[in-house]
Design goal:
The chain has 2 domains: 21-58, Single Sheet (Rubrerythrin, domain 2); 60-166, Immunoglobulin-like. The longest helix has 4 residues, at 63-66. By secondary structure, the chain is an all-beta fold. It contains 1 helix and 12 strands. The strands form 4 sheets. A 4-stranded antiparallel β-sheet has the order 9-8-11-12, with no helix packed on it. It has a 3-stranded antiparallel β-sheet with strand order 2-1-5, with no helix packed on it. The structure holds zinc ion (2 copies). One zinc ion binds next to loops.
């Protein structure tokens, strides 16, 4: 009986899930710099207001837009019973370090704030549908079927804006 131990985080999905949650919508006030997140399935046509004027909806940048000042990479670690996404970053200037990192998954999102003394990686532990993987290797070799395809990493960098990195690489060269 003890042979087949199912961990509490393990996915019970028979096939790879696909995101079934709203897109990440972040607004920034051009006056005070505050951020607001839209959480609904449908967003109002008009942006919400702060400091008396409509806020700007942040249009996500790609890695190539901020390269080579900022580099970001990720790795999927763990197998069936527990797995996680590790996010690594490197900023040439300290002011280009991320303020927070958000992982969008199949079911929603996780957000972690990055303190000044935090060293990479930031680790997002996954459970339930989000823990679906194709292989039991650790680290997952980002199996050619791309078990976490549909996930998205967002980094908010005050000096640059919102950065978006899809989890779609097919093999990991991180260690090499
Ligand atoms: Zn404001
Ligand atoms: Zn895999």
């Amino acid at each position: 009986m003890a042979e087949q131990e199912f961990g509490p985080l393990r996915s019970r999905e028979a096939r790879k899930p696909w995101p079934e949650c709203p897109d990440i919508v972040i607004y920034r006030c051009g006056h005070c710099g505050r951020l607001y997140q839209g959480l609904g399935y449908s967003m109002p046509a008009q942006a919400p207001a702060c400091c008396g004027s409509p806020m700007e909806q942040l249009k996500p940048l790609r890695l190539e837009d901020v390269s080579p000042e900022i580099t970001v990479d990720y790795q999927i670690v763990g197998g069936y019973n527990q797995n996680a996404v590790q996010v690594f970053w490197e900023a040439k200037q300290p002011e280009d370090s991320p303020e927070w990192i958000l992982l969008k998954t199949f079911t929603g999102s996780y957000i972690k704030y990055v303190t000044a003394k935090k060293r990479p990686p930031v680790v997002f532990a996954l459970a339930d549908e989000d823990a679906y993987v194709y292989c039991d290797n650790s680290p997952c070799l980002q199996c050619i079927f791309r078990c976490k395809r549909g996930f998205m990493i967002y980094l908010y960098i005050k000096t640059k804006g919102l950065l978006e990195i899809p989890l779609e690489k097919m093999s990991s060269y991180w260690q090499s």
